[in-house]
């Protein structure tokens, strides 16, 4: 059973259906016990970093999520990926889950913000598991980006600056784009995450 | 490099996709969810639903359509038309819309843009602007392009951006329905006035009209309705035409 963390930040119907279409059972929950029984944890999210962290704290999920990330395959999507880092600077500074070293800062580019639309993955690892996605388009919508060490980068995208697109530390993955909105490529990326962690 | 987006628009009235925007002789074309799914499979980069329902029942039906679309369509989708209040925005986002477009209500009450952006984020706050050439300016039109507000469209675009809009959906009332191509001068003027993505709309009759607007302006996306309906042209024909003209698109 895959558990999608429900903390009131954005609609997760598409994420749920995407995994269901891949043949997995999915639950959407903020119940710690249910999360502990899940095989995989998905942390979605749309909105601001600060609001998300506050919501997670209010539901007393912060420590539970940090603990789960040490035990189970864990995937953060969009804002959920950003929360994996130590600190965010959206609407003032706030602490993240600190699962992957790094910060979340406003994108510095000459291009338009938000970064909205289909952009191409550039695979940063020389890894057969990920090389097949080189050049594929996925759907981004964000104004802030992760700033982290290159060893955690699986793939990046170019938007006048290099933006981390897929990050990984051990069993914890993050995708800055929306795989559930990235058509067939997105489905294949979710499948890849499941294959690598199952 | 980020791809230029091709966006089919579905006009939805009382739960059905209809053809024609002039409210006369509307013809039903099919089920919105099925059509959106078909377009997304064909390579549409995004879908826009424009709710032109006249009744409360129709608008409630739209919420159900949004909910069903969210579980059947795996590209982003926007819902506009009939969005009057922050509660309407909330309802559509909760049902699963990625973005909500506001038009006349935002002109009447610009605070709606600010509130939506602060509560839900710029990324899901789309301001739709219907503009018409008046002398050497463009005016903002409301009520389906029939009422001249006298507001300068470029000033309004800037205000929408300043209030937190994440994107502008720009329709030229002059070229809409003419099928002779996008309004290049209006599009270029608005793109130059703001620093947020702009979607051009109104005037597509041929696939070549997309590469034309992408090559002649810095617009981020182009929208069309009628050429995609009834298979006049396919998404692939449009994208191929873009690729031939050197426009970076996501291949269909």
From TrEMBL, chain A:
Alphabetized SUPFAM superfamilies for the sequence: Class I glutamine amidotransferase-like
Keyword Thylakoid found: no
Pathway entry: Amino-acid biosynthesis; L-histidine biosynthesis; L-histidine from 5-phospho-alpha-D-ribose 1-diphosphate: step 5/9
Gene Ontology terms, MF aspect: glutaminase activity; imidazoleglycerol-phosphate synthase activity; lyase activity
Pfam families, A to Z: GATase (PF00117)
Locations listed in the record: Cytoplasm
Active site positions: 78, 178, 180
Keywords of the record: Amino-acid biosynthesis, Cytoplasm, Glutamine amidotransferase, Glycosyltransferase, Histidine biosynthesis, Hydrolase, Lyase, Transferase
Gene Ontology annotations for the cellular component aspect, listed alphabetically: cytoplasm
Catalysed reactions, as listed in the record: 5-[(5-phospho-1-deoxy-D-ribulos-1-ylimino)methylamino]-1-(5-phospho-beta-D-ribosyl)imidazole-4-carboxamide + L-glutamine = D-erythro-1-(imidazol-4-yl)glycerol 3-phosphate + 5-amino-1-(5-phospho-beta-D-ribosyl)imidazole-4-carboxamide + L-glutamate + H(+); L-glutamine + H2O = L-glutamate + NH4(+)
GO biological process: L-histidine biosynthetic process
Boundaries of every Glutamine amidotransferase domain copy: 4-193
EC annotation from Swiss-Prot or TrEMBL: 4.3.2.10, 3.5.1.2
Record PANTHER family: IMIDAZOLE GLYCEROL PHOSPHATE SYNTHASE SUBUNIT HISH
Subunit structure: Heterodimer of HisH and HisF.
Function of the protein: IGPS catalyzes the conversion of PRFAR and glutamine to IGP, AICAR and glutamate. The HisH subunit catalyzes the hydrolysis of glutamine to glutamate and ammonia as part of the synthesis of IGP and AICAR. The resulting ammonia molecule is channeled to the active site of HisF.
Name the record gives this protein: Imidazole glycerol phosphate synthase subunit HisH
Organism of this sequence: Gracilibacillus halophilus YIM-C55.5
Gene that this polypeptide is encoded by: hisH
UniProtKB/TrEMBL annotation, chain B:
Major location (coarse): cytoplasm
NCBIfam families: hisF
GO biological process: L-histidine biosynthetic process
Name this polypeptide is given: Imidazole glycerol phosphate synthase subunit HisF
Pathways per UniProt: Amino-acid biosynthesis; L-histidine biosynthesis; L-histidine from 5-phospho-alpha-D-ribose 1-diphosphate: step 5/9
Naturally occurring in which organism (per UniProt): Gracilibacillus halophilus YIM-C55.5
Alphabetized InterPro entries for the sequence: Aldolase_TIM, His_biosynth, HisF, IGPS_HisA/HisF, RibuloseP-bd_barrel
Known partners and oligomeric status: Heterodimer of HisH and HisF.
Protein task: IGPS catalyzes the conversion of PRFAR and glutamine to IGP, AICAR and glutamate. The HisF subunit catalyzes the cyclization activity that produces IGP and AICAR from PRFAR using the ammonia provided by the HisH subunit.
UniProt subcellular location: Cytoplasm
Main enzyme class: lyase
Family: Belongs to the HisA/HisF family.
């Amino acid at each position: 059973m895959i558990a999608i963390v429900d903390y009131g930040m954005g609609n997760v119907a598409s994420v749920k259906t995407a995994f269901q279409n891949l043949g997995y059972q999915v639950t959407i929950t903020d119940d710690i016990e249910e999360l502990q029984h899940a095989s995989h944890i998905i942390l979605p999210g749309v909105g601001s970093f600060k609001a998300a962290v506050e919501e997670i704290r209010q539901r007393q999920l912060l420590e539970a999520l940090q603990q789960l990330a040490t035990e189970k395959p864990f995937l953060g999507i969009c804002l959920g990926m950003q929360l994996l880092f130590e600190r965010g600077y959206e609407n003032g500074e706030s602490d993240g889950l600190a699962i992957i070293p790094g910060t979340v800062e406003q994108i510095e580019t000459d291009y338009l913000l938000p970064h909205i639309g289909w952009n191409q993955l550039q695979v940063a690892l020389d890894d057969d598991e990920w090389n097949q996605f080189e050049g594929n388009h996925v759907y981004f919508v964000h104004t802030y980006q992760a700033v982290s060490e290159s060893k955690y980068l699986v793939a990046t995208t170019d938007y006048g600056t290099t933006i981390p697109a897929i990050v990984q530390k051990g069993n914890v993955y993050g995708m800055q784009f929306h795989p559930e909105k990235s058509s067939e490529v997105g489905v294949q990326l979710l499948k890849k995450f499941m294959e690598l962690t199952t | 490099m980020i791809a230029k987006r091709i966006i089919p628009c579905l006009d939805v009235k009382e739960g059905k996709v209809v053809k024609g925007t002039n409210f006369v002789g509307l013809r039903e074309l099919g089920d919105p969810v099925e059509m959106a799914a078909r377009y997304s499979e064909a390579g549409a980069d995004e879908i826009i639903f424009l709710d032109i329902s006249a009744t409360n029942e129709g608008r409630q039906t739209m919420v159900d359509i949004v909910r069903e679309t969210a579980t059947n369509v795996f590209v982003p989708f926007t819902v506009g038309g009939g969005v009057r209040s922050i509660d309407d925005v909330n309802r559509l986002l909760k049902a699963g819309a990625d973005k909500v477009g506001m038009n006349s209500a935002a002109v009447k009450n610009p605070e709606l843009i600010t509130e939506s952006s602060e509560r839900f984020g710029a990324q899901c706050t789309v301001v739709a602007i219907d503009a018409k050439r008046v002398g050497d300016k463009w005016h903002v039109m409301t009520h389906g392009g029939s009422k001249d507000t006298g507001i300068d469209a470029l000033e309004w675009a800037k205000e929408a951006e300043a209030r937190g809009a994440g994107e502008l959906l720009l329709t030229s009332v002059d070229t809409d329905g003419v099928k002779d191509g996008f309004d290049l001068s209006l599009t270029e003027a608005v793109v130059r006035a703001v620093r947020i993505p702009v979607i051009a709309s109104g005037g597509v009759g041929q696939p070549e009209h997309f590469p034309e607007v992408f090559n002649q302006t810095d617009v981020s996306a182009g929208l069309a309705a009628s050429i995609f309906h009834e298979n006049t042209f396919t998404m692939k024909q449009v994208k191929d035409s873009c690729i031939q003209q050197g426009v970076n698109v996501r291949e269909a």
